[in-house]
Every structure is written in C-alpha cells, then in structure tokens.
Amino acid sequence: MRHLLSTRDLSRDEAIHVLDVAENMADVATREVKKLPTLRGRTVVNLFFEDSTRTRISFEAAAKRLSADVINFSAKGSSVSKGESLKDTAQTLEAMGADGVVLRHPASGAPHVLAESGWIDAAIVNAGDGTHEHPTQALLDAFTIRRRLHGGTQRSSDGAAAHGTARGRDLDGVSVVIVGDILHSRVARSNVWLLTTLGAAVTLVAPPTLVPIGIDTWPVDVCFSLDEAIDTVRPDVVMMLRIQAERMSAAFFPNTREYGRVWGLDDARTARLAPDSMVMHPGPMNRGLEISAAAADSARSTVLEQVANGVSVRMAVLYLLLAGQGEGL
Amino acid sequence: MSAHEHDYVIRGASLVDGERTDIRIADGRIAELGTALSAAGATAIDADGLLALPGLVDLHVHLREPGFEQSETVLTGTRAAAAGGFTAVFAMANTSPVADTAGVVEQVEALGRRAGYATVRPIGAVSVGLAGERLAELGAMATSRAGVRVFSDDGHCVSDALLMRRALEYVKSFDGVIAQHAQEPRLTIGASMNESALSGELGIPGWPAVAEESIIARDVLLAEHVGSRLHICHVSTAGSVEVLRWAKARGIDVTAEVTPHHLLLTEDLVAGYDARYKVNPPLRSSEDVLALRAGLADGTIDIVATDHAPHPAEAKDCEWGAAAFGMVGLESALSVVQAAVVDSGQLDWADVARVLSYTPARIGRLSGHGVPLAVGAPANLALYDPTASRPFDVSRLAGKGTNSPYLDRTLPGSVRATFHRGYPTVLNATPLAEETVSASAEHADRAAGTRGTE
Amino acid sequence: MSARTLLHQADITRALTRIAHEVLESNRGSAGLVLLGIPTRGVLLASRLGRILADIDPDFDPASVGSIDVTMYRDDLSRKPTRAPAPTSVPPGGIDGTTVVLVDDVLYSGRTIRAALDAISDLGRPRAVRLAVLVDRGHRELPIRADFVGKNLPSAQHERIFVHLAELDGDDSVSIDSLSTNPASTDPASTAQVDAAAGSTTHGRARP
Hints:
The complex is a heterotrimer. Chain A is of the alpha/beta class. In chain A, 39% of the residues lie in helices and 16% in strands. Chain A folds into two domains: 7-134 and 308-322, Rossmann fold; 137-301, Rossmann fold (3-Layer(aba) Sandwich), CATH 3.40.50.1370. Chain A is globular. Chain B has a domain at 53-363: TIM Barrel, CATH 3.20.20.140. The interface between A and C is medium-sized, with 30 and 26 residues.
C-alpha cells in the first residue's frame, strides 16, 4: 500500500505491523534526543482544507521527529475556488517535490481522489475526510488500548527500558463501546474497521437518528441505550465521540440536555464501569455534555495518552510510507 | 443540378419487425420501401446487417444554451443526439436565463432549427426562475413559435403541493404535461448518492428512495384529483415502479421515464469516489435496476430518456463533494439500452422503437417524429449495427461533455447513420460537418416552404 | 546451492570466548562495560558474549547487555523496501561514560556500524565505543575497523556469507556460497545473509 486512505484496507498483520513500529517510535519519545534522522531530505506537506490544530501539530511533530521537512498548507479561506482547489493545489505540491501529503478535507473520499488522480506522485495520508475516515486516529486508539492492556515500554527513573508484551498482539477478546454521532463520525468508521480487524468486539451506541442506514451490514452490535450497553457488554473500553452542536439544530436530537442525560458518560455511569476499564475521547471534549469532567480526568481516561500516542503512530505511518522505496505499509 | 441530388437509397436494412427492405428517401420523406429499389440519381447506402429504427426522440436533455455554453450548445448537443441516432430532443429549462418565457424558448427552438442536427423542442419552466414559487408564463410558451407542451423545473422538484396542483390544472387548456423531478428537498439536503449501507460506509450523505417515491405518490394522487396528465422524470427506484404500477392500474394519466444509466449502472461504482458516477437521481442498488428493467418491459415505465447532462471537465475532475451532478448520455443511449434490456431478451427492437421514439414523441405532442417507418412518413431514422461490441471511448462522443460513465466500458452496437427530415446528419458512424448539416436543414426548410405554398 | 561451511559450532564458541578475553583485557576488567547487539543476530551474539564474560569475571553485570536498532539511521532506507525496525533496549544505567562494545555478526561495508554510531550518540555519550564481530569479510566502504574479530574471512563481492545461530536457525555455523545467479532460491527468513550487490548486511527480512 502506497497510501493510508482508510483502515478498511488494512489487514490484521498490516495493522499490527504499524502498531509495532509505533512502539519503536514511542521509545524514541522517552529519550533525551527525541529525533531520528530517518526522513532527512524528505518533504511532508500538511495540506489542511479544514481547521484542525490538534491533528496538524501531531503530524507536524511526527514528521519533525523523523527529520522530514514540513510544509504546512492551510487551504481553508484561501482564494482558490472550491472544486478546482484540490487539483490545483496537488499539482503545485507535486511541482514543489512533496514526498508525502497529509490531507485533511471536508469532502469524503478526497484522499482517494488525490491518490488515484495522477495529479501528484506523493504518498497520501488521510488525516480525516468528511464523514468518511480518520485512519491515524483509529490506529492511535488501537495503540492506546493495546498498551494499556499489554504494556508498552516502561521506563524507570534511571532511564532503563523494559519492553512490555504489547508487540505483535491483536485485540482479541477486547470489548469496545463507541458512543455518539456515528452517522457523521469519521473516527467511529475508522475504529469500527480497525478494531474489529484486530479482533475486538465493537458495540455502537447512539440515538437512532445518528446511526447510519444499513448499519446491520457493519461488523458491530448497535444499542440505543448507553445504560444497557454498560450493563450487558461490560466494556473494556468506552469511547465517547464529540457531539456537534449543529446536529441539534438539524433535529437529530431535541437539545443538549436530553442528549447528555441519555447518551453522556456522567459520573453515575462512569462508576458502573469495571475498575480497569478505559474511557477514551478523540478530543476536543465537550465536558459536561458527552463526558463528565470526572470521567475525563479519572485514571480510566486515556485522553492524554491518546495525544502522546498520536505522535508515535503518525511517525510509524510516515516512516512506513516514506522511508522505503515506495511500497509503503 | 440533378433533381435527385438529395435522394438516398438505403440498401438491405432490417426493420424492427425483422423485415428486410430497401428504403428510398426523397423530399424529406420515405418515398419507397421494397427490395431491389432503383438507386438511379440517388446516393446509395449499404445497410446490410443494419437495423433501421425510427429516429429516436429524447424527452429529457440538457443543451445548456443559453448561459452555459462552456458545457454544451444547442449545436453540439444536437450533434451528440444525431450521433446517438436521435432526430428530436426536448431541451430542459434550466438554462440562464431560465426558459420561463416565450422569448427564451423561441430562441432555443431557432438555434436548433439553424443547426439542423435534430428537431429541438424546448421544455418550459413550471415556475419563474425554477424557484418553485410562482407559475411561469406557461400559456405564452405554449402558444409561442416553440409550441411548448412539456413543462418542468427539472433539477428542482416542484415540491410545493399547491403549486404542483395549479400547474397540473393550468396546462390542461393546451394539452400540456408537467414533467416532475421527484425529489423531496428536505429529505435530500446535501445528498449525493443513494442512501444505503454503502453511503454510510463511504460517509457520503444519502439520497433515500423514499424522497422520490413520496413525491411520485403525492403527484399521481394530485393528477387523479384534478384529472391532468403527469410525467415522471428519471424514475430510479423499485418503490417508484410499484407506485406507478398502482397508479396506472387505477387509471391515472401518468407516464414515466427511466434513464439508460439507471438501467445499467449501480451505486457500487461510487465506492472509488469517481465523480463521473455522481448523478441526480443517484445510481441505485442492483434490485432497483432489475425492477426498472422489469417496469420498462411491462410498460409501467413508458420511455427511456437520457437526461444528457454535459459538464466541463473541471466540474468532474475534483473531489466527489465538489463535483457536478450528471452524465452525458445521448451518444451511448442505444448501446446501453441494448446491453441492459435487449440482449437480456426483455425488450425486442419493436419495443425499443416504442420506448425511444413513438411514446416520447406522443408524450411531448411532437408531430413528424416517432412514427413507424412507412411510405409517406417523414424520413427520420437511424441505422444501427447491433453486432459490434467494443470499448466505448471519447471518439464516440460528439458533444462538448466527456463526462460519460461508459468510457473504457465495452458496449454493444453502434449508430452507423442518422437521417433527420430526409437528410443525413451522421454517415459512417460520424456526424457530418456543421456547415453541411445546416445547409441541408436550410434546403429542407425551403423545400417544405415551397411545398407548403403549392 | 553449494554452500561451504567455514565455521562450526565449536569454532564459534571458541571465537566468542577469545573475544570475551580480549574485551576484558582491553578494558582492564569489566567495569563500565556495556554490550549492545545489533539486531537480529548481533543481539544473540551479545547475549552469548555477556554470559561468557560473566563466567570469566564475576564482577560483570549481566544486565549491562542490550540491543541497539539501527534501522532508522541507515543511509540506504530510500533504496530498499521499508524495513521493520526492532526494539532498542539500553541497560538500566544508560550508556553515559561507559565503554560500549557493539556486537554484530558480519562486518562488511561498515555502513551498519556507521548507523549504529549515530544511534549511540542519540542515546548518550559513552567514554569509548568498540566493535566486536564474529566475521570480518572485508570490502569496507567506510573507514571503520573492528576491535575484536572472531574470524577474518576474505571473500569475493559476489559471494554470500550466511551466519546461523542456534537460537534462531537451529544450528551454529558460518558458511559461504558463491552462487549468485538466483538469490531468490535461498530462504532469507531463516538465514542472515550478506547481500553482496547492495553492500550491506541483511538480517532475515521480517516481511516477505
């Protein structure tokens, strides 16, 4: 695979390989010199047609730790006209000699189009396309789950490294509940494909209005009640999705108060989770809406680990796509 | 100058009933049918193994002129029509300015007459500016030189039930018909593909079948209530076929069309986000395709119309979300119909003549077209070779648009020649030069005028 | 394939024992000594060497044996399919002020060792870095020399040298093979081979 466009395309072995390489990258982050010379002379362009400071700086840190040259190109609000902008921009980047393009775009499938267009030769990394996929988010979520369960590299105060047993492992037997706006969530889609490929059992919880038509063909269970999911699934992982305020005006649910009451991870629901379970959120969080402050800040919360692991996983992806002769993942 | 300079003798063609005959064309009409006709003074055309079809009539094309000449003009659009074996097309009203006044429809009709590739019959807008608020000047368009009989806001649904009722009632006075683009707008906000498991997976907002079916159900009941004639554009779902079947059984005066692409292509093609497959209504499931074929075969769906929708290259050479809706379809229509329903045995060639010529002309109240090939009939016909199967490529496209979903797909058949009002517009599967065709048209007009004064 | 075996199990054990003595002698004991093996077979050799050192000198700390992955530091990354990196693990005390002995199976072009030196400098600042290899086959492309050599094996560039270690390959041996017409006929997954054409050591590709 020359590009990373979706987690749907990843086999179990490929996914585990990415996570294993990410373990190496995570080791680098614990060293005094947090940099590798690996991508020296390679140019990575962060091409963002949509604002996302978090994702952009994560990719930027990943590319820089691998010594790549990084160009940030924010196309949002620029004068290029809609429609032509992707092609024109791609051809410009090709002329500048980009080796990798990290693309965030409001249109589903834009990375596919870029990868197959012939406009540009670079490796394409999907950093979130419309309501389609966000593969590196799912990879970092899987990485985070695997590390919590099996241990990554632990480093003691004197700098010694002890390798956990996470390498090579899948997520067989892990139960994951994903809660929120499944219909519009690229994070949910990428996680459904990746986590189930890795062997996890996934249950989606949402108001019926925010569940896509045809969900019965997905390899998941669907439940309209968070309480029921917590009690029957006994999840190892509860992943809360960000709820967008504009969904309310489009009548997907009556108001945020009702949403929070029925589908929010409040303190009472958090207390019913198993003690060693994880609470995940891709960020940014609406504290008090889909997740209570206590749940977000509890020991169960992996929110900050997810941020740190995001850099490691994105380093792994950039390494695998850009370091070699071009056969990729 | 010979008296027979403009005469043609077509040798050895098969009619849709299988009968083999020569066809002599003189003075814009079919002068003689039979075997071993004399070709003295006339141009002979070898049609051995070719099918002679009545000139095809397309009730639904977008010629884009005036206003969007970078996409298509009346001339290039009718050239594409001729390449596909069509001799008459109905041009949709979503031009700029919108065809909502007598002035615009007369201009479009005149442009078609001058180009000469096919008879152009403008469709008038139902509402002013296609805005869905006030009725356009339907009567003025009907009595104009363009003689408009079909009215449509195509591209937009006449979603206001009261406006739809009034339009259905109003056109009764001049035997008009409202052609509805059935799409409940609130159910399809931002939608650009069939709503299904695939749309959920691809993250593309879905266009549910019910958005089409609910409007058709409402409109057949309205048509029944006011006793009017209704036509449904580009039916795309199995449920719509069911509703239409029910309406016809009830005796409601409704006709319906299906596009060639909805008879052949399915939503699976969208999986690669290739914008050539972005069309409205969207490509549906294979179950829908099968239901549409069955509906066409049993007469629930009356006609095939292309919804030929040319766009400049940049409107498709982009991400899915930004791409324009629509496909060109005139040049490929007959081949696609053959692939979808003739080769499968559901339709024979006489049925093809019905759904692509006789009935569309009748729905559009167009005289001189859509009549069986017989002595004395206007010489509008196409010679078609149903045997050759080969990749469809841009060399077969004769309009401005290259947004065909069939490029590089192997399709059967090829239109070898087209005659419009007795003169050729296509010979050797190639459209004739525009000067040649417009000169022929002018000659035909003069001859008709002379005859008219006799 | 006509591989000639040049070193047998006893030869390898003898060579490692000699290297252990030489290391202790040059370091004047085991104080501040750290062994870092280069994956894959260098790691196995380093741990064998560590056991021998501990047998000879009870002061040697068995925990001061680790591994150093050099994949990310290679200069030929862009010319080859992407390699799977292996873990790096450094002894608890780190490497600052220590004498690091790099351990690898075959010394050839010297490029792997160059990459290892870069990797070491990102991990800390040792007092000195030494190099121990089981086999030196010549053909250096960089000014790099081994301090401790198990066996010098002069070879032609078209020849391949295979190191088998029991932990990974089932047996201990070093063999040479001059066949170069069809490299695909060898099984890269079970042998460490020196890729003569590319001039670098390849340790059993993790992904076919």
